[in-house]
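Table 4 source record.
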Amino acid sequence: MAKMIFVNLPVADVERATAFYQAIGATKDERFSQAGAGNAVVFSDTITFMLLSHGFFRTFTPKTIPDARSTAQVLICLSEDSRDAVEATLAKAVAAGGTPDPTPRQEMSDYMYGRSFEDLDGHIVEIMWMDVDKAMAAWSSSPEPVTSAAAAARQAA
């Protein structure tokens, strides 16, 4: 069995959040959905978001649920097969009520491209395409580690 990742996100309205993620291409998995508690939405065989009501999320941790509109606890990044697919996913997110580009657009020469959106609860989701071979070649020729999109763009130039 392949390793899987389950991203647990606290959301204000489970059904609204589910509709949002379905609009950008995820599929609701009824097997792991529970009325009033949360819904699973699947992006691939290995990536699932668990959209959990605040009340249900609190049963997993005693920590305060951060307001994703004013703080960032995590940045989620999903890959796409092309630059055009990045743009298409962003367009779907905006059409479903998301906010485009809360983080800078990433354009690194001809090997990496990324955009981002905020979901309905303020969680930042990056979407990116990368030609891994070209990226590794560019990064291996640089004496400095790549620490951000801006740094990568400077090093690639």
